[in-house]
Write a structure and sequence with these properties.
It is a multi-pass membrane protein. It comes from Gossypium klotzschianum. It is found in: Membrane. The protein is mostly helical. The protein has one domain: Amino acid/polyamine transporter I (Up-down Bundle). Helix content is 72%, strand content 1%. Helix 7 (131-163) packs across helix 15, helix 14 packs across helix 15 and helix 17 packs antiparallel against helix 18. The model is unreliable at 555-572 (pLDDT under 50).
């Protein structure tokens, strides 16, 4: 037996090294390979074995979107951004980030209606720009989800401490002297929360949705309490004390907008539930766009309430709202805020973990990661293996890593994916659907991105103000010229973004601009992550998909005389 096993191992290694020698050929064949929406909906989905169960309605989606965003945004980022970047004008940062999120959500909505599968941005980009772009975006989405969920789980500990009247959240963490700073405070309550939610999500999506609906309803009532009490007991003078509404100028407001974009992670989770909802063409637009509108309004009111209660330079960076109520002498209210914030964080974590498992499940269907991650349990209708795997990853990071270390790399990954989705929507509508030549559309996308980068560089080089009207004007002229000269044809869609290409073009500009406001360290960490996932694709992903698709093509040829299922390539 040992001899046979040794021979099998040698055969596996031999075949793998033989595959590596064919890497250039396989990269040429697979990097730009795409699937049609019909293949994505039928042929690829069958690889999960059982189907996910369609039990969710429009109000489930709105509640999941609202619940997924609320706990993250207000209770994790508002305090640090107000104190260190935007000052009392943090609500303006939320408005700017909200506009960008709304435009991105419009792009997501059109894609999700046309391709109602659980893969979200991964599937949208794979059918438009090919396998590698879809994989790169999908890997970044998973990174964003796992890191943000770990960060949110750790913030749960801080607010739970506040609910019990404990001012130092580290008192519930175990400090290990031998570990690096930022990784040396072990958070076992965060790990426990992640594991409990993981097992809930393995059981049923509908029951998880009902739990979220209940928590979100209580959470909105609780938000109303904070907003009303904040405005009643605060002072408008705090908005201009001690150094005005924008102590760090418009630059601080925009820097803050890039960071609070972290708050809008959640609405894209709604698009990953497309295989589990009833009547997707109606339910998806209501769920995605409705949740973004509701959350944007609540964010602005909550940010204002915090800043009228306490001058921005006295806002605590940890458990900001609880500490604000304690500063005005309402210690009991601070405890209530801690309990309510903990509930909101649980709801947001539930939704985010729901979305991350579905992304990984669909990436597994594409064979870019091991196929066992794509399996759907026949009884529960949930992606069991993906849920368990990512739950363990999230718990491991939540055990060690502080929020400050991950928050900006989360923002850059999110902005990049939203940027790619906006580009993909324009290319799909004007090239793949309208059958126009690709060169005018690709030139337009290149010019928009280049001008957005030029505008951003001018903004950073404070003395080069002439670049702002120049590049801004070029973007407007180029977009108007493209709209006038390149027709948007094709069959009517059940739902489409109005006034195209303007919303997608503005989304591209805002995502590029907000990315450039992040620190260089964020780009360095992101570059390392990008290198690692590219290596994984070259060493594993491309070979796995090549062999899976080649086998599928041979089977199709054997079964059907004139096979109609063929891989297409992005025309360039």
């Amino acid at each position: 037996m040992a001899t046979i096993q040794s021979k099998d191992n040698k055969t596996i290694f031999f075949n793998y090294f033989k595959s590596l020698s064919q890497t250039p050929h396989r990269l040429r064949k697979r990097m730009l390979a795409t699937w049609t929406p019909d293949q994505e909906l039928n042929q690829v989905r069958l690889r999960s074995g059982a189907d996910m169960k369609r039990k969710l309605k429009w109000y489930d989606l709105v509640a999941l979107g609202v619940g997924g965003m609320l706990g993250v945004g207000v209770f994790v980022t508002t305090g640090p951004v107000a104190r260190n970047h935007s000052g009392p004008s943090v609500f303006i940062s939320y408005i700017i980030a909200g506009i960008s999120a709304l435009l991105s959500s419009l792009c997501y909505t059109e894609f999700s209606v046309q391709i109602p599968v659980a893969g979200g941005a991964f599937s949208y980009l794979r059918v438009t720009f090919g396998e590698f772009v879809g994989y790169f975006a999908g890997a970044n989405i998973l990174m964003e989800y796992v890191l943000s969920n770990a960060a949110v789980a750790r913030s749960f500990t801080e607010y739970l401490c506040s609910a019990f009247g404990i001012s130092d959240p580290n008192s519930w963490r175990v400090e290990v002297p031998g570990l690096l700073q930022g990784y040396n405070k072990l958070d076992f309550s965060a790990v426990a929360l992640v594991l409990i939610l993981t097992f809930c999500l393995c059981h049923s999506t509908k029951e998880s949705s009902i739990l979220n609906l209940i928590m979100t309803a209580f959470h909105i009532v609780f938000f109303g309490f904070i907003i009303i009490m904040g405005f009643c007991n605060g002072s408008v003078e705090n908005l201009v004390k001690p150094t005005g509404l924008t102590p760090n100028g418009i630059r601080g407001v925009l820097d803050g907008a890039a960071i609070v974009y972290f708050s809008y992670i959640g609405y894209d989770s709604v698009s990953t539930l497309a295989e589990e909802i009833q009547n997707p063409p109606v339910t998806l637009p209501v769920g995605i766009i409705g949740s973004v509108f509701i959350v944007s309004g609540l964010y602005c009111l909550m940010a204002l309430a915090l800043c009228v209660m306490v001058p921005y330079n006295q806002i605590a960076e940890k458990a900001s709202y609880s500490m604000a109520f304690q500063r005005i002498g309402w210690k009991w209210a601070g405890n209530i805020v801690g309990a309510g914030a903990s509930l909101g964080i649980v709801a947001s974590l539930l939704v985010a973990m729901l979305g991350q498992a579905r992304y990984l499940c669909v990436i597994g269907r594409a064979r870019l990661v091991p196929s066992w991650l794509s399996k759907v349990h026949p009884s529960t209708g949930t992606p069991l293996n993906a849920t368990l795997f990512l739950g363990l990853c999230t718990a491991s990071i939540a055990l060690f890593t502080d929020l400050d270390i991950v928050i900006e790399i989360i923002s850059i990954g999110t902005l990049l994916v939203f940027y790619l989705v906006a580009n993909a929507l324009i290319y799909r509508k004007y090239v793949l659907t309208s059958k126009n030549p690709p060169f005018p559309t690709l030139s337009f996308l290149f010019l928009i991105t280049s001008c957005a980068i030029g505008f951003s560089i001018s903004w950073k080089l404070e003395q080069q103000w002439w670049g702002l009207p120049l590049f801004g004007g070029i973007i407007m002229v180029v977009t108007a010229f493209f709209q006038y000269t390149v027709p948007c044809l094709g069959p009517p869609s059940e739902w489409s973004v109005p006034f195209m290409p303007w919303p997608a073009a503005v989304s591209i500009f805002l995502n590029v601009f907000l990315m450039t406001t992040l620190k260089m360290l964020s780009f360095q960490r992101f570059a390392i992550w990008g290198l690692l996932i590219t290596l994984f694709y070259v060493l594993y992903g491309v070979h796995s998909t090549f062999e899976a698709e080649e086998t599928g093509m041979k089977m199709a040829v054997n079964e059907v005389p004139n096979p109609s299922i063929q891989l297409t390539k992005l025309e360039v």
